[in-house]
């Protein structure tokens, strides 16, 4: 059956209660229990034994149903004589001391109480240890109740000592805990003060940023206003100077000019034209910045636009080694956009390509991207190129790269700034890719249906201005064709 019976004690008289107690202690020690567990088993057994002796005696059998469990079965001699458990102080006490107490009746009708206690670190009870145990128990049966009382007192003292030590330990842990709590509380207070300070700092910083933003916005607005006003003011006198210079040059043979005079007046004329170009570009930029350019969206035929651009670009090429290649657009042939603004941007890019290319090809082409929702128009040249550091700066106002060809090329440094703004206004973007010495490619990407891609698909530079089908085209009619071409 696997149940190892360890020892048995007859319970006949009161003295046997002590023997049972002692037996319990010894057996528990022999199977691996220690300290308090020994006392628990011994006390539980003496409690139950007392009841059993009072009800006419019985028998205690110790067994090990498994190595980790000690079972003590106490059987009464008399039939049905053990008091019901609720009246038995002994059974109640035993219940608190061991892991399990069960009451039953055996086949002959004797009351049986079974106590069970788990063994935390069991010790194998082999034959040698078993007979040793029995020998020791047999010898101690003759001990007097006084001896057992002494042992019990010693156990009690040990338990008291242990309880005292536990209490001390508890007090120490409590004190430690309290100290830790103080520390945690102090740390928490410190952190929350720090957090509060930081929060206050952040709030102040935000307020400052808002204020700076407002200042910047104001500054930018007043710059735009200034540019617009000054450009308007300058245009009239510059136009007068140009008119007068042309009048002086075109004298219909009356009072002919000397070569020197003609040369001087031509100089006035070309300087006036430069000035007018600058003023016009400033005006364009101011308009784009202040959002006053409202595009007029319409169907634009790319092939027609490319032919026009070819016509206006070819005359600008003065170097024999430079050729213009215009790829017939086949994949995207039309798009919805503002044709005038797009022409303006592309003329600007083409005229730059001509200015900064000494030999090689300048290619105008269009390809669909993003599943045909966007058209990418590219102006590629094999010119001097732009260094990586300058690639972002060329889109800034008045920025011109210092270098070869720059002095001979006329320009204001405003063309690309304006072109990018226009590309954004049209719902797209303008980018550059370039390798110094090899050439540059400027890419204008525009939505084919005239609507910028939704905010969700937006990548890179944001499109802030909704083009919308603007009611009126705000190009200044008095300027007729004052674009960046022909520089
Ligand atoms: P502008 O041509 O009137 O000077 P832009 O804003 O159009 O002004 O161009 C700014 C500068 O960018 C140019 O002065 C030139 O230094 C550089 N740049 C523009 N396009 C090219 C190009 N295709 N190749 C090399 N450099 C270029």
From TrEMBL:
<dbReference type="InterPro" id="IPR003661">
    <property type="entry name" value="HisK_dim/P_dom"/>
</dbReference>
<dbReference type="InterPro" id="IPR050736">
    <property type="entry name" value="Sensor_HK_Regulatory"/>
</dbReference>
<dbReference type="Pfam" id="PF02518">
    <property type="entry name" value="HATPase_c"/>
</dbReference>
<keyword id="KW-0418">Kinase</keyword>
<dbReference type="InterPro" id="IPR036890">
    <property type="entry name" value="HATPase_C_sf"/>
</dbReference>
<dbReference type="InterPro" id="IPR005467">
    <property type="entry name" value="His_kinase_dom"/>
</dbReference>
<keyword id="KW-0597">Phosphoprotein</keyword>
<feature type="coiled-coil region">
    <location>
        <begin position="146"/>
        <end position="180"/>
    </location>
</feature>
<feature type="domain" description="Histidine kinase">
    <location>
        <begin position="229"/>
        <end position="450"/>
    </location>
</feature>
<keyword id="KW-0902">Two-component regulatory system</keyword>
<dbReference type="Pfam" id="PF00512">
    <property type="entry name" value="HisKA"/>
</dbReference>
<feature type="compositionally biased region" description="Basic and acidic residues">
    <location>
        <begin position="473"/>
        <end position="487"/>
    </location>
</feature>
<dbReference type="InterPro" id="IPR004358">
    <property type="entry name" value="Sig_transdc_His_kin-like_C"/>
</dbReference>
<dbReference type="GO" id="GO:0016301">
    <property type="term" value="F:kinase activity"/>
</dbReference>
<feature type="region of interest" description="Disordered">
    <location>
        <begin position="436"/>
        <end position="487"/>
    </location>
</feature>
<dbReference type="InterPro" id="IPR003594">
    <property type="entry name" value="HATPase_dom"/>
</dbReference>
<keyword id="KW-0808">Transferase</keyword>
<protein>
    <recommendedName>
        <fullName>histidine kinase</fullName>
        <ecNumber>2.7.13.3</ecNumber>
    </recommendedName>
</protein>
<dbReference type="InterPro" id="IPR036097">
    <property type="entry name" value="HisK_dim/P_sf"/>
</dbReference>
<keyword id="KW-0175">Coiled coil</keyword>
